[in-house]
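Problem 12. The chain below contains 183 residues. Write out its predicted structure in token notation.
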Amino acid sequence: MENKIFYFSVTGKSFWTALTLANELTNCDIIAMKDYDIDKPIFAQKIGFVFPVYYGGIPDTVKNFLSKIKIDGNPYLFSIHTYNNNDGITSLQIREKMISCETPINAVFPLKMTQRNSQHSYTDIFGENAILEMLRKTQTKITKIAKIISQEKDYLKRSFNLFKRHKSLAKKQHHIKEKLIVR
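Solution.
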């Protein structure tokens, strides 16, 4: 049984990530989400989704793809989302989207790939040496991610940090209000 990685990429970072990961895993195909026949069920041992973060969340193209896919069997599901400064609520959105498809995701990996200005190429901004250094560091992270995926480990640790911080802040604000009312 083969492994499949579906990707969405505009600048090439997510495509590069999918390609690098496919090289780390065995028997793995990479497929552009836009090129996949959505009526055809997906059958694989491991299925991954690689895409960039848009405005702190999942791009509409990826949301539509995930809403329409049909997954056969009980594969190990993972996603990698590439981002520049902040991955927002992407981890939560991907989990919610997969649960709504009745296929819970096993692992969600945020992957920071720094870019100062998306309107210019990396070469224009950083120079070739800086790009190569960024890709080398990113490849090291992808190797670690590939090991987790190969072992089919669950990796969802960052998924609820946003809500934990919000809940903690709300609790502190409530406690402060209580003190003000008591006095």
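Discussion. The helical segments are 13-24, 60-68, 90-100, 122-125, 128-150, 161-182. Students who got a different answer should revisit the alignment rule from Section 12.3.
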